[in-house]
Amino acid sequence: MRDVDRPNSRSGQIYQRARQVLPGGTSRSSTYASPHPIYLSSGHGAYITDVDGIELLDFANNFTTMIHGYANPIIEAAVIEQVKRGSSFGFATEHEVELAELLRARVESIDQIRFMNSGTEAVMHAIRAARAYTGRPKIAKCEGAFHGNYDYAEVSLESGPDNWGDTQPARLSTTKGVPAGVLDDVVVIPLNDVELASQVLEASKDELAGVLIDPLANRAGMVPATAAFLDMVRTFCTANDVVMISDEVLCFRLGFGGAQTEFGYQADLTVLGKIIGGGFPVGAVGGRSEFMRVFDPTDGKPDMPQSGTFAGNPVTMAAGVASMNLLTLEEFERLNRLGELARNRLRDVIQAAGVPGQVTGLGSLFRIHLTERTLHGYRDAYPTPEERENLNKLYHYLLEHGVLIASSGMCALTTPMCEAEIELLAERVDDGLASLP
Q1: Non-local CB neighbours of 334 within 8 Å, separated by 6+ positions
Q2: How many CB atoms lie within 10 A of CB 170?
Q3: I want to staple 10 with a disulfide (CB 3.0 to 4.6 A). Which of 51, 216, 352, 393 is the partner?
Q4: Rounded distance, CA 357 to CA 351, Å?
Q5: Which residues of 325-350 are buried (b: 16+ CB within 10 A; e: fewer)?
Q6: Phi, psi dihedral angles at 132 (to 5 degrees)
Q7: What are the two backbone dihedrals, phi and then psi, of residue 427, each rounded to the nearest 5 degrees?
Q8: At what angle do helices 419-434 and 329-353 cross, to 10 degrees?
């Protein structure tokens, strides 16, 4: 059992050093926690171990990235072999081509790919590519959807009932570092409200470069986009020469062909990251050749130059090839069956506990909500203060009893997991719900 308040813990001691050189004692706001962040020493399989030797069953896996868990021997071997040959070059390598070929073979809407260093960077370049292709300035996105730490992609990320607007979602800055002018080039639409979203898009169609969609946006509640909504976006983009961008940094793990195969649509540009790097920093933009041509320097300076010191890094590419080869069709089917088992077990636990709650998600992704409201999108999933407090208590209860989930209630499965890990999660959630007022 974890006692996060132990003043003499090793994590507490490291924090005293870290806060002198790192704001908040960490390089990621998402990992800060009071009274101090947890500092890890190792991970193996589905478990991580902190510097105090406390082990946690990890359902967060670096926010869905570590789909093969930790220290996978096949990925480890591929990385070591590449590091011995060189960890970074100023030229391309064959691993870069091999990973691109693997991804193209799985996603029907991808002809060509460019690699970057993160999902945020990939979203940024996808938005730029859409502007370069269309010659228009504006981008549309869904209210509450997270697409990385990029000014335009963060608009209206954390709006609330006091400022999100009565009907059409308001355009709001998420941080104080965003210039007011950014808001002029962003159109915000409500997920799954086909009529209103269509009206908002139509009003800006002559200025829109692209529509950015995540069909299973975690920050918007992990509520699946409906077929009618996705069809409306696809039809609108085709009719108005607007680029449809599918952000699958997180939801590419839904199946062998990614989210587009599972949801039944085809985007013009697809943004990838997380699992395609085998645990190393990665991002990518892929799409039809006509859209990817803006990156092509063959005939001189391209419309959208893109480069980066570590873009296509050979260690990441080697790890990515190993990771994707391990993700066979059969392994996806097994993971997704486990995901359905987890959602059903948690629903049973919530019902038996007699507390308001439900579970959203698809495939190997799921999210716990402590509300009985019907969830259509971001506003329905937005927690009341009481719901937020109860979820925070559940999160800390699980953390103190050997299970890690995201503080939002989001969970992701990894290939080392089986039914035993699902049952342990269900048991701990059952106990945690019983501890609530």
Answers
A1: none
A2: 15
A3: 51
A4: 8
A5: eebeeeebebbbebbeebbebbbebb
A6: -65, -40
A7: -65, -45
A8: 20
Which token pair is 304? 């959208």
Determine the Cα–Cα distance for residues 272 and 283; give it in Å rounded to an integer: 6
Residue with tokens 């097994």: 334
- Round to whole Å and give the CA distance between 24 and 164: 29
C-alpha to C-alpha distance for 282 and 148, rounded to whole angstroms: 13
Mapped onto helix, strand or coil, the DSSP state of residue 43 is strand
**Per-residue tens of pLDDT for the chain, all 437 residues:** 455 556 689 999 999 999 999 999 999 888 888 888 999 999 999 999 999 999 999 999 999 999 999 999 999 999 999 999 999 999 999 999 999 999 999 999 999 999 999 999 999 999 999 999 999 999 999 999 999 999 999 999 999 999 999 889 999 998 888 888 999 999 999 999 999 999 999 999 999 999 999 999 998 999 999 999 999 999 999 999 999 999 999 999 999 999 999 999 999 999 999 999 999 999 999 999 999 999 999 989 998 889 999 999 999 999 999 999 999 999 999 999 999 999 999 999 999 999 999 999 999 999 999 999 999 999 999 999 999 999 999 999 999 999 999 999 999 999 999 999 999 999 999 999 999 98
| 123 burial type by CB count under 10 A (0-12 exposed, 13-18 middle, 19+ buried) | buried
Cβ-contact 212, 141 below 8 angstroms: yes
- Other CB atoms closer than 10 Å to residue 297's CB: what's the count? 10
Q: Is 299 exposed, middle or buried (0-12, 13-18, 19+ CB in 10 A)?
A: exposed
3-state SS track over 212-226: EECCCCCCCCCCCCC
The tokens for 76 are 């480890």
CA distance 159 to 171: 9
Burial class (CB in 10 A: 0-12, 13-18, 19+), 161: exposed
Query: 284 pairs with which residues across the strands?
Result: 115, 272
**Domains, the chain, with CATH or none:** 39-67+328-434 (3.90.1150.10), 73-326 (3.40.640.10)
Which residues pair with residue 211 across a beta bridge? 140, 244
Residue 141's SS3 state is: strand
